[in-house]
Amino acid sequence: MIDEKFEIRPATPDDAAALVAAQLRNREHLAGTEPARADAYFTVEGQIARMNDGNVRWVITDGDRVIGRADLSGIVRGPFCTASLGYWVDGEYLGRGLAVRAAETMLAYARDGLGLHRVEASTLTDNVASQRVLAKCGFEKIGFAPRYLHINGAWRDHFLFQRILHDDPPPL
Fold first, then answer.
1. What pLDDT is stored for residue 1 in this prediction?
2. What range does the record give for the signal peptide (predicted)?
């Protein structure tokens, strides 16, 4: 189902303009699942600043065109060894397995590249498509969080999920 022409790789500053174009192209598509964004977010400088904020950002590409993004944010070391997974796919590319592939790629990087024990994710309660992505990637539902995130102008309820990556002790 996934065409080999698609690539999932770490974002670089060279991707900033394509990320801006993708965000603007998908602004309406993402409005129901994304927080409000300042105008600076939709600039090359804003995207480069996000790449340098300590989180892990990867892009999904179709040639030179960015068609999605996957992130590991809120990375915590020590006894917690966890991060939060986020992702989105361009509205024109839905149904091709790209979100699953991106999530699986990020899980492998979290485990093998960062040595994390656990990755968490959340979805709006009515975001069945994203819940399916998480289920396909081995996440388990662990809870319900009322008014969890401010999305599309209001505090929204979310389901919480986690995926345990390994049971090795954290590095000392």
1. 45
2. none
